[in-house]
Write a structure and sequence with these properties.
Elements lengths: L1 E3 L5 E3 L14 H14 L6 H18 L2 H11 L1 H13 L1 H10 L2 E2 H8 L3 H7 L4 H7 L3 E2 L7 H8 L1
Antiparallel strand pairs: 1-2, 3-4
Helix pairs in contact: 1-2, 2-9, 3-4, 6-7
Length: about 160
């Protein structure tokens, strides 16, 4: 598919990314880590261990989901994400994420490219408050729209 950008030049967008798993290569590692976490904690007594296991499970789901499935889930079950997706389309976030062959981008670079304050961008990405401080160290890889669990996993 070809689209025009604000500069009036044509860009080609590979639409096949919408139906491919977001990070299929990390699935075996995530499964091993999930199994290890699940067997090493008393999940009823260890809240932090349970939350770590939950975070890893979300990372696994994010790796298996296609961008299309992620958007459908977020629009139907996570309605705040729907508005972030719509705003992302309006401001050109996905075009910026797709540049350079879809290489991962850090929040400050994304904010600069979009003309956003980095804190506004972090809020826009709907990152939990406890993730904001570490966000500048985390990358935001396309094609997945938003997945802080996976991003947090990548920064560890």
């Amino acid at each position: 598919m070809s689209t025009s950008n604000p500069a009036g030049t044509q860009e080609t967008i590979d639409l096949s990314i919408a139906s491919a798993p977001c990070d299929i290569d990390s699935v075996p590692r995530l499964l091993n880590e999930l199994a290890s976490l699940g067997s090493s904690h008393d999940l009823l007594a260890d809240r932090d261990g349970r939350l770590s296991l939950l975070d890893k499970a979300r990372s696994l789901v994010a790796a298996l989901e296609t961008p299309r499935e992620t958007v459908i889930r977020q629009c139907g079950a996570e309605t705040a994400s729907f508005y972030s997706i719509a705003l992302g389309v309006d401001v050109g976030l996905f075009k910026v994420l797709a540049k350079d062959g879809g290489s991962a981008k850090k929040a400050p670079a994304l904010a600069e490219a979009l003309g956003f304050d980095v804190d506004v961008l972090r809020t826009f990405l709907i990152l939990p408050p406890d993730k904001h401080d570490a966000d500048s160290l985390r990358t935001h890889p396309p094609p997945s729209y938003r997945n802080e669990a996976h991003q947090a996993d990548q920064s560890r």
